[in-house]
């Protein structure tokens, strides 16, 4: 079953311009993405491509200046504001990109206790729960003993990140939106985090995992969604990332793959256009694409199915 379906979602931000006027920049454009039960979908793409904005749209925490179009469904029903509020922190959990999301005034231990929402289920005594939280943090996340008694400001960035992970995974969530959960994490903890994601997925959860690190995404994800300038340009299978990238469908995905150290560090010239620099309606990658033709600048390519994946490029075969 599809746990998360993002259908034709666009997000734009309104900004004042001068005294009376305002301008809108579209930072996500007509996005389609699905996460099924038991599946880990990694979202990769350059900084500013719209990954975190998508996470915020799903969680219902976009700022008031944002306008969202399109539909987001959870468990095959529209994810309305009311459902977002009801499911958040329970079935639907979020690991935010910024550690400022920890409550600064609450000791860490209080923040990693599992939620018990089932009717009639007795809450564990608070001391017992504290012990459980402590064990989780020391055993699984290798944090020093006593971490639960600390306040967030007493933790390093990497420690705070592990606390965020523990906070999000201490219950039994169905859909996890993890925005860059791994930077600053020790390689062993990284491997364990990915193992934990896999176990949760094997129990039926769906995970949308936003990351800069394609190499680690490839070791744990089932499918990879590639973002460029607010568009999802390709959805690939992990096994497509091999050799010189001939199995990949979009020139940007191929360029990302060939820019990895193990593939010879071949950078692509130019840079991703910012939302307010995108001109016209063509393919956003066209200005940097060696395969671009005049037709590429005419219209935004449709997302179409190709060789077991999806692509937005009129030339992909
Ligand atoms: N609250 C906001 N108001 C205005 N613009 C915003 C806001 N939040 C994000 N943006 C813009 O939306 C675009 C996408 O940002 P987003 O944070 O989603 O990028 P990202 O892909 O997560 O990047 P990174 O990899 O650096 O985390 C950027 O151009 C950013 O400046
Ligand atoms: Ni981000």
UniProtKB/TrEMBL annotation:
It is an enzyme of class 7 (translocase). PROSITE patterns: ABC_TRANSPORTER_1, ABC_TRANSPORTER_2. Its main location: membrane. Pfam families: ABC_tran (PF00005), oligo_HPY (PF08352). Residues 6-254 form the ABC transporter domain. InterPro entries: AAA+_ATPase, ABC_Ni/Peptide_Import, ABC_transporter-like_ATP-bd, ABC_transporter-like_CS, Oligopep_ABC_C, P-loop_NTPase. Keywords: ATP-binding, Cell membrane, Ion transport, Membrane, Nickel, Nickel transport, Nucleotide-binding, Translocase, Transport. GO terms for molecular function: ATP binding. Its EC number is 7.2.2.11. The keyword Membrane applies. It catalyses: Ni(2+)(out) + ATP + H2O = Ni(2+)(in) + ADP + phosphate + H(+). It is a peripheral membrane protein. SUPFAM superfamilies: P-loop containing nucleoside triphosphate hydrolases. It is found in: Cell membrane. Belongs to the ABC transporter superfamily. This is Nickel import system ATP-binding protein NikD. It comes from Paenibacillus illinoisensis.
């Amino acid at each position: 079953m599809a746990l998360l379906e993002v259908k034709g979602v666009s997000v734009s931000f309104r900004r004042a311009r001068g005294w009376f006027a305002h301008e809108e920049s579209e930072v996500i454009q007509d996005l389609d993405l699905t996460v099924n039960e038991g599946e880990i979908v990694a979202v990769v793409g350059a900084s500013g491509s719209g990954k975190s904005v998508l996470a915020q749209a799903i969680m219902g925490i976009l700022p008031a200046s944002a306008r969202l179009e399109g539909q987001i469904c959870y468990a095959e029903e529209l994810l309305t504001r009311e459902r977002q509020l009801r499911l958040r922190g329970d079935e639907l959990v979020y690991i935010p990109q910024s550690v400022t999301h920890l409550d600064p005034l609450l000791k860490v231990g209080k923040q990693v206790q599992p939620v018990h929402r089932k009717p009639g289920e007795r809450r564990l005594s608070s001391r017992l729960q504290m012990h459980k939280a402590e064990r989780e943090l020391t055993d699984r996340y290798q944090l020093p003993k006593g971490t639960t008694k600390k306040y967030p400001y007493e933790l390093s960035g990497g420690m705070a990140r592990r606390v965020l992970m523990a906070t999000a995974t201490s219950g039994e969530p169905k859909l996890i939106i993890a925005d860059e959960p791994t930077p600053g994490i020790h390689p062993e903890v990284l491997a364990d985090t990915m193992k934990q994601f896999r176990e949760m997925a094997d129990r039926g959860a769906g995970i949308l995992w936003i990351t800069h690190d394609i190499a680690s995404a490839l070791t744990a994800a089932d499918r990879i969604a590639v973002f460029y300038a607010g568009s999802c340009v390709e959805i690939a299978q992990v096994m497509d990332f091999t050799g010189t990238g001939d199995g990949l469908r979009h020139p940007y995905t191929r360029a990302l793959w060939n820019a990895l150290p193990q593939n010879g560090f071949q950078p692509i010239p130019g840079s991703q256009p910012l939302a307010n620099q995108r001109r016209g309606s063509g393919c956003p990658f066209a200005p940097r694409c060696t395969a671009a033709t005049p037709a590429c600048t005419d219209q935004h390519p449709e997302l179409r199915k190709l060789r077991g994946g999806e692509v937005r490029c009129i030339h992909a075969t």
